[in-house]
Design goal:
By secondary structure, this protein is of the alpha/beta class. The protein is built from eight helices and five strands, in the order βααβααβααβαβα.
Length: 148
């Protein structure tokens, strides 16, 4: 199984958001579960993490933190060259979430773990440009109950 981590899984602990504990359990536990083969995120997520980290902790913390994350997860890129165009054909409340959804879908992810399930579930592909319904959207708490 291939899981995509939305940027809020990394950012909530940095920002001390309410779901921070569950996010930390996802980050710490996926390898131990033995049920997830690969965990990925996008370069867009890494850019978001770097930006927020620089603002919160200073630029000297950015490179070591990002490098540490890359020891545990992989970054996926726009492998088809068409992901931005696909995202423009979809609709939803947040374009950044649409880009993440397209990136996860095109990369063959089975699930997207996010603290923002509500917006992801509103993403629509009326013209079926992706040719699939995409990955299942689950919260950190759902991931923990199913896989850890």
């Amino acid at each position: 199984m291939k899981a995509f981590l939305d940027s809020n899984i990394f950012l909530n602990p940095l920002l001390a958001e309410s779901e921070c504990h569950d996010c930390l359990r996802v980050l710490d536990g996926w390898r131990k579960s033995g049920r997830i083969d690969e965990v990925v995120t996008s370069y867009l997520s890494m850019a978001n993490i770097a930006y927020v980290l620089r603002k919160k902790a200073g630029k000297e913390k950015v490179a070591p933190t990002v490098q540490n994350l890359l020891n545990y997860i992989s970054c996926i890129s726009d492998s088809t060259g068409c992901e931005y165009e696909y995202a423009c054909a979809l609709s939803g409340p947040d374009f950044e979430d649409i880009l993440q959804f397209v990136n996860a879908t095109v990369s063959g992810c089975d699930i997207i773990i996010t603290c923002n399930k509500h917006d992801f579930q509103k993403i629509a592909d009326p013209d079926n440009v992706l040719g699939t319904t995409g990955p299942e959207i689950i919260s950190p708490a759902e991931f923990i109950s199913r896989y850890l």
